[in-house]
Amino acid sequence: LIARSVPFNAEADSLNCAILSTECGPDTPEFELFVKEVAREMTVKAGQKCTAIRRAIVPRQHLDAVVEKLKARLAKVVVGDPSVEGVRMGALASHAQRADVAERVALLRQGAELVCGGDGVAPVGEGTAEGAFFAPTLLLCQRPMDIDVVHDIEAFGPVSTLMPYDDLDQALALAARGK
Predict the structure, then answer these.
(1) At what angle do helices 29-43 and 63-75 cross, to 10 degrees?
(2) Is 50 a catalytic residue?
(3) Cα–Cα distance for residue pair 73/46, rounded to 1 Å
């Protein structure tokens, strides 16, 4: 390829993650930035991005604080017609995509609990009743070292899974499991 200058492009699929450091407690700006970015990645383009954060790896001692902050932030996300004032997230690409996301969330829930969101959402705006809307959905896998599904299944929509870790080596091992 190099010798003949052959154009080549490869996209390697993975389940992207973000890791919150143990040093970044609830009273730090980095903690706030982490929560903001996970929520943003879930909702921009209704989570339909190859680079979206699908796995949020957090220190076990900060897990409850992250859960509460993310739940509160996601609860403020208004779903519906993006042309309506205040709406922050639109629909998925199609009804088939919504069905696929719901199916994958069901698979993820075999190893993770639902923190907030899911298939039920009341979109804002005229004519949205038939749209392919899906609420921002946050899951929590308490035992991510023991559960494969959260590292192998991607719901290509507004979905992310929280995973606690106990030390840096474990955080890195969890990150690597997303391939």
Answers:
(1) 50
(2) yes
(3) 15
- The phi, psi pair for 58, rounded to 5°, reads -130, 150
Catalytic residue among 11, 85, 126, 130: 11
Q: What are phi and psi of 63, to 5 degrees?
A: -60, -50
Given the residues 24, 37, 41, 50, the one annotated as active site: 50
Q: What are the tens digits of pLDDT across the range 20-63? A: 999 999 999 999 999 999 999 999 999 999 889 999 999 999 99
Q: Please write the tens of the pLDDT for every residue from 69-128.
A: 999 999 999 999 999 999 999 999 999 999 999 999 999 999 999 999 987 899 999 989
C-alpha pair distances (Å), 102 with each of 55, 119, 143, 155, 159:
17, 6, 22, 8, 10
Q: Give the residue among 175, 178, 164 at the shortest CA–CA distance from 59.
A: 164
Global pTM reads 0.91
Told to judge if 11 belongs to the known catalytic residues of this protein, a careful annotator would answer yes
C-alpha pair distances (Å), 63 with each of 30, 68, 117, 169: 15, 9, 18, 17
Question: Strand runs (DSSP E) across 50-134, as ranges?
Answer: 55-59, 113-118
What is the predicted pLDDT for the residue at 118? 82
